[in-house]
Specification:
single chain; alpha/beta; TIM Barrel; five-stranded antiparallel beta sheet; binds 2-acetamido-2-deoxy-beta-D-glucopyranose; signal; Chitinase_II/V-like_cat; lysosome
Length: 381
């Protein structure tokens, strides 16, 4: 790891000059401090050092800001992807728990065709990671790419070059890439999945928003139905991607759809909102965090229902204007099935979008519900 060059000489110059032995002693005493840079914001300078340990099981957490991280289950977390404002207190805390803290990486696909642009983008991210004492980067590019276009190769190159730079400059660092629930051109994202998987530490598979393109009937369905989710992994593995390069992303949020019609057998017809070529999509609904869902469920007209085909819970409610809604979500029951799949197929780990979605208040019921959501992530012995 290389440190910002300006810092060292400045501190060295302050060392007393008179007694050279004293100076040497002082230098030795200061060595760990120097190694961690002079602006380490943590109580212990070594907390600014990058994490070296590679866990056997990843629990990859997306955080979107605020202080809810203080209530997370840190006995499980191995990586926090910071998608909110940088918080040095979070970095120090995560490091004290042996967890990595990584940057978000997003860039315009058009721009990265130019190798010079890629190089400067990577240099800028690397510099940011170093000055913030972070442990890597999660590349989250969800833009459309045409198969075998210049963008297609540029994206693979970007991931490869980012990994090379980070691994070289920050010892033990982690570079990951977010992919759709299936490699089959979801949302017109034709990426070189095997090339990208080879080029980084692992893929975070976003096994949610699986109704982003509805090709059949326009009806409300689960955010991440079990079979559909599993089909995605089967396809990634069939392409030759090692299961140990796959972390399963689960949603800690659901979708609230307004029904044009709600039939007696709970079929909720939704408005036609096209997305990237498909006639309808989950864009007809809106995302709701698990904490909101849990507050609403008892006042719903159906209570929690379980759909056996999709292996997911849902409920129906009527809004103030008299419209029926159907809400599809994931709960400990649906997530535990996916967690079992992870174990049976030897995937590298689990993660969620996003950790802030749970209720971290002191309320006793909320507390228990939140605990259960964290608990089901744990591999069974
Ligand atoms: C994907 O990327 C790898 C590594 O760069 C390359 O060898 C391979 O040819 C690419 N595959 C396709 C289909 O372009
Ligand atoms: C709408 O729902 C009602 C009540 O369940 C049902 O009788 C009717 O057939 C549905 N209409 C359509 C167009 O699906
Ligand atoms: C909702 O109802 C269930 C079952 O009666 C109960 O266990 C739960 O505590 C209730 N939740 C809230 C938020 O009141
Ligand atoms: C889910 O997949 C299993 C195994 O492929 C199959 O037997 C079952 O019918 C599927 N269920 C649904 C609802 O598609």
């Amino acid at each position: 790891m290389s440190w910002p060059q300006l810092r060292r000489p400045r501190l060295l110059a302050r060392a007393p000059r008179g007694d050279s032995r004293l100076a040497l002693l002082l230098l030795l005493a200061l060595a760990p401090l120097l190694a961690a840079g002079t602006h380490c914001p943590c109580s212990e300078p070594e907390l600014c050092s990058p994490i070296q340990h590679r866990p056997d099981f990843e629990v990859f957490v997306f955080d979107i800001g605020g202080k809810t991280w203080k209530s997370y289950d840190w006995s499980q977390i191995t990586t926090v992807a910071v998608f909110g404002k940088y918080d040095s207190e979070l970095m120090c805390y995560a490091h004290s728990k042996g967890a990595r803290v990584v940057l978000k990486g997003d860039v315009s696909i058009k721009d990265i065709i130019d190798p010079t642009f890629r190089t400067s983008w990577i240099a800028q991210k690397l510099d940011l990671a170093k000055t913030q004492y972070m442990d890597g980067i999660n590349i989250d590019i969800e833009q459309e790419v045409t198969c075998l276009s210049p963008e297609y190769d540029a994206l693979t190159a970007l991931v490869k070059e980012t990994t090379n730079s980070f691994h070289r400059e920050i010892e033990g660092s982690q570079v990951t890439f977010d992919v759709a629930w299936s490699p089959k051109n979801i949302d017109r994202r034709c990426y070189n999945y095997t090339g990208i998987a080879d080029a980084c530490d692992f893929l975070f598979v976003m096994s949610y928003d699986e109704q982003s393109q509805i090709w059949s009937e326009c009806i409300a369905a689960a955010n991440a139905p079990y079979n559909q989710t599993v089909t995605g992994y089967r396809d990634y593995i069939k392409m030759g991607i090692n299961p140990k390069k796959l972390v399963m992303g689960i949603p800690w949020y659901g979708y609230d759809y307004t029904c044009l019609n709600l039939s007696e057998d709970h079929v909720c017809t939704i408005a036609k909102v096209p997305f990237r070529g498909a006639p309808c999509s989950d864009a007809a609904g809106h995302q709701v965090p698990y904490k909101t869902i849990m507050k609403q469920i008892n006042s719903s007209i159906s209570g929690s229902q379980w759909n056996k085909e999709q292996m997911a819970p849902y409920y129906n409610y009527k809004d103030h204007a008299g419209y029926f809604h159907q809400v599809w979500y994931d709960n400990p029951q649906s997530i535990s099935l996916k967690a079992a799949y992870i174990q049976n197929y030897g995937l590298l780990g689990i993660g969620m979008w996003n950790a802030n979605c749970l209720d971290y208040s002191k309320d006793a019921i909320a507390k228990q519900q939140t605990e259960e959501m964290w608990k089901v992530l744990k591999p069974k012995l």
